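Dear support,

I submitted the protein below through the web form. The confirmation email said the job was done, but the results page showed an empty box. After a refresh the structure appeared. I'm attaching both so you can tell me whether what I see now is the final result or a partial one.
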Amino acid sequence: MRFGVAILPEAPWKESVSRWRRADELGFAHAWTYDHLTWRMFRDQTWFTSIPTLTAAALATERISIGTLVASPNFRHPLLLSKDLIALDDISRGRVIAGIGAGGRGWDATMLGQEEWSAKERSERFTEFVELTDLLLREPVVNWRGKFYAVNEARTYPGCVQKPRLPLAIAAGAPRGFELAARFADLWVTIGDYGEGLLSGRQGAKLVGDQTRQIEEACQKQGRDPKSLRRLVLSGIRLDSGLSSLESFRDTIGRYEEIGVTDFVVHWPRPTEPFKTNLELFERIFSA
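What the results page shows now:
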């Protein structure tokens, strides 16, 4: 099991840098930040954008992989995102993972002044966004004209440090998303579902186990070995992280390992909700 940590972009860098460095020291396999304009609960508080934050994190760390969890079509274009990611892959010396999702609804989807997309349009945009991003990260020259996105002789030199391109972590919780992840993802990302309240380790593992069977079926339909796809659980939003004690964490991790989860992401401790966790206990768990 690889462990990762999500660090909210809520503090000035002089404060946040110590969290990224400590995550590196603790041996986390990957560290992430959210690619949103902000969260509604933070709308009148500090919230920095992801690419500058990850650039600073790349320069402050040595070995940990870093990434967006997740970028989306809500306010991104595949070409600009791809060029940012390629630059970041260079700065980090090949440590970038590009997390991509369909994007949240509500405020984050309408802040640029557009109407909220229908479920059908959101799904279609997501598919085209991933297809074009994958191509731009692989090829130095791309022409594309789709229903929602177009590029004309787009150049992405020098390309990714990681070949044939940097890894894609695709968030999916429904059949069309599973198909997309099976086609393009190096990691499949799940938060469980969008219900209310935290699901226990037992409940969460049952839900993710059901999703895992669906993603494996999608891989088989694509002629892909399901074992070639890493499975990443982002805990803390809908799925309990098990951080109330070392014993609880071990029990939670054991349940997810049993269903084939390869990567488990927790949130850096905050003194208040969301993601309120005791920092001393957190250190003890991940130092063990």
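Response: this is the final, complete result; the empty box was a page-load delay. Residues 231 and 256 are 10 Å apart (CA to CA).
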